[in-house]
Amino acid sequence: MPYDIFIGIALTFGAGILAQWAAWKLRLPAIVLLFTIGLIIGPGLGLLHPSESMGWVFRPLVSLLVAIVVFEGGMALDIRQLRDAGDGVSRLTMVALPINWILGSLAARYVAHLEWGTSLLFGAIIVVTGPTVILPLLRSAKLKPRLAAFLRWEAIVNDPLGAILAAVVLQLLILHVDVHTSVFFTDTLPDLLTATGLSVVAGIAPAYMIRTLFVRDLMPEILKTPALLSVALVLFSACNMEMEGAGLIAVTVFGMALTNLHIPGLAELRRTKESLVVLVVSVLFILLTADLQRGALAHLSIPIMALTLVVLFVVRPVGIFLATLGSDMTWRERVFVGWIAPRGIVAAAVAGAAGIRLHDSGYHSADLIMPAVFSVIAVTMLLHGFSLRPLARAMKLSFSSEPALALVGASSWSINLALTLKEQNIPVLLVDSRASALMPAARQKISVLRAELLSQHGQEALEERPADYLISTTADGIYNGMICGHLAPALGRERVFQISPGVSRLDLYHGLSRDARGKVLGEPAWNFTLFESLFDQGWRFTAQTSTEDTSSTFGKRENRLDLLFIRRKTGIFILSAEDLNPASPVAGDILISMVPPKAPEPSPVEQ
């Protein structure tokens, strides 16, 4: 392999992670940055042409990486999510797909003037909404659970179905098979149904085998993640040998079966694969975009752009409207889903290979497949990526954009802290497993959640009311540490805090390991007993808008406990003695402190 390929691969990995970090820091859709980087280093500067450099290895490698992404997406499909979203999901996956195929094909034929065969293939390719685009957007959008389920299920389920539809259409066009002939019904259709059925069975059977190995402790922990990935890749390759696209169905079903079998320890494995998928998606988007040829971009004519606009503003909205008539989806949900439909890796990968094969079969307009699909991918990623969160907020389909805080453990002083935050319009959620402890908070209109966060139900309930930060405030220091350790992978280790378990337990060698607990709220001496005793003495939490004077002294003032400050639309900054470089408030931030009762005013007689 030439030396410049190694440089290109290193550049791709580095640029991908840099783009992900920049997107997180700037609160931008990561996919848009990845797409832009690919355009710059590929057709822009000509630094990287993966298909030319890697030769025949490139397409199979892309296919295997796509399989990993789709498998991880399948693991996000929990049947229990269908309790509220089942009708809408079935409409979006079973009804909308053929409608969108027909409308997309008609648009390609009469707007871009493509041949009928090319139009049918284009329509089949664009029916999918890419999970590689949707899932990262959902992680940061704070959509309400039901709406998020619609988009998640549609993207993951339609991805393999769309790939199979495109493969079948391509095969029929290459063989010049008329759907009205007996060949279609005697050979093509039975083969399609057989391959699909075998793919479903092939996905379910290994899941039961994996469950047996994991539950009976026949698989060491270090091999569990490699075993899952290996089985997924073997399933994908084997089923694709039967029929192009069948492998995507198999790995989707495999991931979905694993999740719904509720295998112990799978949550930790899923987090490992999520991290891997972030890297895979970053590399895939840059490679596929960089592989675009300048000649293909030169085909971006006015008819192609017109076709893109029709797909966005006519085909998708009309298809969703027709498919969801009579469903239990609200008009807001139908409008939102009708607009949000970014295409991704599968569409790009299928278009690149299918266009070449169709052109070799004598379809002259097949050269326009790649630029047409590329145009749809680029425009949908930009428009939908940047509009998803603002549109959801405008249509009241998402939670507040203010940073949200979850307080675990209902006590007199934690309820007072929650009430103080609520009065400042900061989203706060008080969590406890005891109904009696939550009743005083509920009477004050504080949002409460009765759940055990160490249980699967509790964690799912918390996901439905997303929190950005967490403070565990119970009297049990070990339990607080367990809560923080359990939720740190989801919220971020620097965003989970607990009140001090005691100075002696914070010893780095003899005490609680930092990996087994959260960051300590405030000073090591600020334990539950201190907060409780101060509250009994009349201390209360208060909110104050920061000025230049209070900003410089916050966290250093005597006779008060400075806990945290909130910067609107930005974040919650919780003070901890463990921070080497603590943040400082600026003018306008909201300062939250626990202060002693005011001394009574002297009476006139005393004066």
UniProtKB/TrEMBL annotation:
Membrane topology (UniProt): Multi-pass membrane protein
InterPro entries: Cation/H_exchanger_TM
Any one GO molecular function term: antiporter activity
Keyword annotations: Antiport, Ion transport, Membrane, Transmembrane, Transmembrane helix, Transport
BP GO annotations: proton transmembrane transport
Entry keyword Transmembrane: yes
Main location: membrane
Locations listed in the record: Cell membrane
Recorded GO CC terms: plasma membrane
Domain of life: Bacteria
Cation/H+ exchanger transmembrane domain residues: 22-393
TM annotation in the entry: 6-24, 31-50, 56-77, 89-112, 118-138, 150-172, 192-210, 275-292, 304-323, 335-356, 368-388
Stored PANTHER family: NA(+)/H(+) ANTIPORTER 1 (PTHR32507), NA(+)_H(+) ANTIPORTER 2-RELATED (PTHR32507:SF0)
Protein name: Sodium:proton antiporter
Source organism: Neokomagataea tanensis
